[in-house]
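Fresh eyes needed here. Have a critical look at this protein's tokenised backbone.
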Amino acid sequence: MNASPLVAVVTPVYNGEKFLDETMRCVQALTYPNLVHVILDNCSSDGTAEIITRYKAGRVPLLVHRNSETVPLRDNWNSAVSHVPKDAEYIRLLCADDTMSPESVSEMVALAETDPEIGVVGCDYRCFGEEQETYWPEDRSVFGGIEAIRMTLLREGIIIPIHTLVRKSVADKRQPLFQPPLQSAFDLDTALSLLVHSKFGFVHKSLGFIRVDDSTVTNQKFGPKTRAWTREALYLMNEYGPKAFGSDYEKRLLQYRRYYVRRILRWRNEDGGDQNLERHFEALKNAGWPFNWALVADALMDWGMQRLGIRRNWSGYPGWQ
């Protein structure tokens, strides 16, 4: 294996002029010696192209592509990854409004190179100017893939997919890399799918920096008001729960369903009706649980038993929604 395997930093961008310059600058400042920055412009109409041009003579070479028309977010991400050079050994995702520390790639590659079975490497990160809790045990850096999935679903460890390093040979087995049906958590779905067949590495340093801004495409389409993460967590439970929980799967799923139903009741009260809840009703129905009074009674009885200390509430992913 090469002393410094080629790493492709991948940045899909659409109308990113507000923050893109800072993102491009952080890639040029990376200390890792063997890099290429793959950028896919999703037919931006602002100054994105001009910002990219400024960095074409930088230390880190650019591979720049532009769509002839604007495509959906997930399609743009898949297309961006498709432009990664074949001889690259790792892919480092980087959104067009985020940044990473100069040593980010060096630290993550160093861990990945300790074990060829590591397919995904995560890291601590900062958001709102503060380091965020990720929960991965400080005394460990490598986890079995199924173990990491279970810990993620239970929120005993948090994976931030947009700040991960992925081994390309593992990613190549999933085509396309980002798949339906999820709309907001499709990147986490991808990370968990890769961990079914590989190990998870975690660097206990704040190497990634996330910017939360109302103007970004992600926040406009999938921000907190959509409550999409709670709905899509049901899909992740159904998709990965059997592998992660084994004989405990049905118990964990029931616990999540009761939590989900109570969340719906809360949202109904906050919104003054059902107008924003159709997608949640549909998600439960597709899982075999049409939203009805029996479901509500069961969820409320469970809440009462929690108040008595007989049961515990769901505290897993997404937890904060």
